[in-house]
Design brief:
Layout (H helix, E strand, L loop, with lengths): L9 E6 L2 E6 L7 E5 L5 E4 L7 E6 L1 E7 L4 E15 L2 E13 L8 H15 L3 E3 L9 H4 L8 H4 L12 H8 L23 E12 L2 E11 L23 E9 L15 E2 L2 E2 L7 E10 L6 E4 L7 E4 L6 H15 L1 E6 L8 H14 L3 E8 L2 E10 L9 E6 L1 H4 L9 H14 L2 E5 L8 E5 L3 E6 L5 H17 L1
Parallel strand pairs: 15-24, 18-21, 18-24
Antiparallel strand pairs: 1-2, 1-5, 2-3, 3-4, 6-7, 7-8, 8-9, 9-10, 10-11, 11-12, 12-15, 13-14, 15-22, 16-17, 19-20, 20-21, 22-23
Length: about 475
């Protein structure tokens, strides 16, 4: 069964009574109609009366309700970023808001909300693909149903526009529209639902000797507990932590299709996919890391002082939420190596102690060790479970005194942490899969699975975390 993929090109038609969206290439597909000003959705198999074609768009980002009105957010321009396994990936360049009603008078609140949203989208690194699920790592993709619609395969954590796609998803799923009418399942809506990912994405095609390969780095930001530095810290009652990101490092060997030439299509394209180097198996290597705020209830209160006030609630209050968080992490990634890089003295010490107390409480029986040297009285500190009785015993806590050990730009000393993690990294491996020759759209033949993850944090999950994740990424690439 062929996969259900989003429409690549959609004609936008506008009338005073509705907006209509019609696939330019699938002429037999029904038109999606949004009534004005009610926002009611319907599918229409005939031409929409009185509607005029305004433009061609790259996709529908979603529908959002503000103070006075609903707006359809459309993607008006997208830039190709490169290919992964032959599938083109795009960056959202520009968007437009379509109001459901014309307002004769301006409302200052509504105008402010609109301005903030437009500014946010203008500066946001939003990416998507019409034929590849970039919200999931290659390993998770290998376990998904390729015949399911792309939006149904998306990882809920990284399906960035999931909330503003609610109207379309509810309409497709047969939920009540608020008038008491319950529709049946409407699979014809699937191609109009385009999942996007928020984060960093770089694709670099190159060659080593005569072997073409593509190197890619993707960081997916969670849509849960988003927020800016200082204003969003710690965990919430649902187990979501601030600054949570998944980073996937990808190497695709024998891949001659990683670049941009021919992105508009051509004889080599099949369902939006370009074939790999002729006569050679395409080999995918992937390594995943995560980062996220220390999973207890803590905050930094902004005031007139340069350094915000740090508040931490009792660790006991966070046990249930932290258990939810780590249960999900273990289910998705396996063994969890929790690397903590905050300072062990000064204001950050309270965060360190809270994290360690949390781990001791979650695991069955703790076994701890501490290493010191002339630079630090606590260079390394580990907390492991001495027995395996329950799920939380798959947590392995490793503290590293990053600032003291790397003082004076001595970044090489971070390898002290790498030495401590090596055994776990070797056991956890990385993902490796081979594309069957002559089957570019088929599943990968899995050779290796990654069975653990390193979850790194500092206070902001930024600079210190970046250094350590880069080190682990380089080490793994050398192994691969």
């Amino acid at each position: 069964m062929a996969p259900v993929l989003p429409y690549r090109d959609i004609n936008l038609l506008v009338s005073p009574l509705h907006y209509a969206f019609r696939s330019a290439s699938s002429t037999s597909a029904p038109t999606l109609v949004v009534e004005r000003p009610s926002g009611e959705l319907r599918l229409d198999n005939v031409s929409v009366q009185g509607a005029k074609r305004v433009s061609s768009i790259a996709g529908i980002l979603g529908i959002i309700k503000l103070k006075l009105d609903k707006y359809i957010i459309i993607i008006t321009k997208a830039r190709p970023m490169g290919r992964l396994r032959g599938h083109m990936v795009y960056n959202v360049v520009s968007t437009e808001f379509l109001p459901l009603r014309e307002r004769p008078l301006h409302d200052p609140d509504e105008d402010t909300y609109l301005s903030l949203l437009k500014q946010f989208l203008q500066n946001s690194p939003i990416h998507f693909s019409y034929s590849l699920d970039i919200t999931n790592s290659f390993q998770r993709q290998s376990n998904s149903d390729p015949s399911a619609p792309l939006w149904k395969r998306a990882d809920d954590r990284f399906f960035w526009n999931r909330f503003i796609q609610t109207d379309l998803i509810d309409f497709r799923s047969g939920l009540s529209d608020g008038t008491g009418i319950r529709y049946g399942q409407l699979s014809d809506v699937d191609p109009y639902i385009l999942p996007v990912m928020y984060g960093m994405l770089r694709i670099t095609p190159t060659k080593v000797k005569s072997t073409p390969f593509t190197f890619a780095l993707i960081t997916r930001r969670s849509r849960h507990r988003g927020g800016t530095r200082y204003f969003s810290r710690g965990i919430d009652e649902h187990g979501n932590v601030s600054n949570y990101n998944e980073t996937e490092q990808i190497i695709i060997l024998n891949d001659s299709a990683g670049g941009l030439p021919g992105f508009a299509g051509g004889s080599g394209m099949q369902n939006g996919q370009l074939r790999s180097a002729v006569g050679k198996d395409l080999h995918v290597l992937s390594f995943v890391q995560t980062r996220g705020s220390v999973p207890v209830y803590w905050s930094e209160i902004n005031n007139l002082f340069y350094i915000p006030r740090l508040l931490i609630r009792s660790v006991d209050t966070a046990i249930s939420a932290a258990r939810q968080h780590f249960s999900e992490q273990i289910r998705i990634y396996g063994e969890n190596y929790l690397v903590n890089l905050v300072n062990h003295k000064g204001r950050e010490e309270k965060v360190k102690k809270a994290y360690e107390q949390l781990v001791r409480t979650l695991i069955t029986a703790s076994s701890e060790s501490t290493e010191s040297d002339p630079l630090s009285s606590e260079k390394l500190h580990t907390v492991d479970s001495s027995i395996r009785k329950q799920e939380m015993d798959r947590l392995h806590y490793v503290y590293f005194d990053f600032h003291n050990e790397t003082k004076g730009l001595k970044w090489h000393r971070a390898e002290l942490l790498l030495n401590r993690l090596t055994d776990g990294l070797m056991r956890g491996q990385y993902f490796s899969g081979v594309e069957s020759l002559g089957d570019p759209s088929g599943p990968l033949d899995i050779r290796l699975l990654q069975s653990s993850v390193v979850r790194t944090n500092c206070m902001d999950c930024l600079d210190r975390t970046n250094v350590v994740q880069s080190m682990l990424g380089r080490w793994t690439a050398t192994r691969q």
